[in-house]
Design goal:
CATH class: Mainly Beta
Distance between the termini: 21 Å
CATH topology: Hypothetical Protein Aq_1857, Chain: A
CATH superfamily: HesB-like domain
Order of helices and strands: EHEEEEHEEEE
Strand order of the largest sheet: 4-5-2-3-9-8
Structural class: alpha+beta
Oligomer: single chain
Strand content: 35-45%
Number of domains: 1
Length: 110
């Protein structure tokens, strides 16, 4: 079971962003959980060209994801999606480990 599942829509957007920055071959999407936000923890998404020994690297839908050891504890079973509608646009994270979430969806409590 992967730590984070990526939908086709999210993978397509990740590929578009990597292509636009010319980083398709050298970078992966790092998904990280850090302290902060209105619920105590928040997600960080960034392209990273470095993989550490303690990182988990996963391939999903043709993109590479990197998750550090600490963040993996909070992210097991999470899905990453991308929505683009009149009401909202951006990556959406569905984390079954989140006990509480804020209204913006960017922070959570575990």
């Amino acid at each position: 079971m992967p730590i984070v599942e990526v939908t086709q829509a999210a993978a397509a957007q990740i590929k578009r962003l990597l292509d636009a920055e010319g980083k398709t071959e050298t970078h992966a999407l790092r998904i990280k959980v850090v302290g902060g936000g209105c619920s105590g923890l928040q997600y960080q998404l960034a392209f990273d060209g470095e993989v550490r020994d303690t990182d988990t690297v996963e391939a999903a839908e043709g993109v590479r994801l990197v998750v550090d050891e600490k963040s993996a504890l909070y992210l097991v079973g999470t899905s990453l999606d991308f929505v683009d509608s009149l009401m909202e646009s951006g990556f959406k994270i569905n984390n079954p480990n989140a006990k509480t979430t804020c209204g913006c969806g960017q922070s959570f409590g575990a």
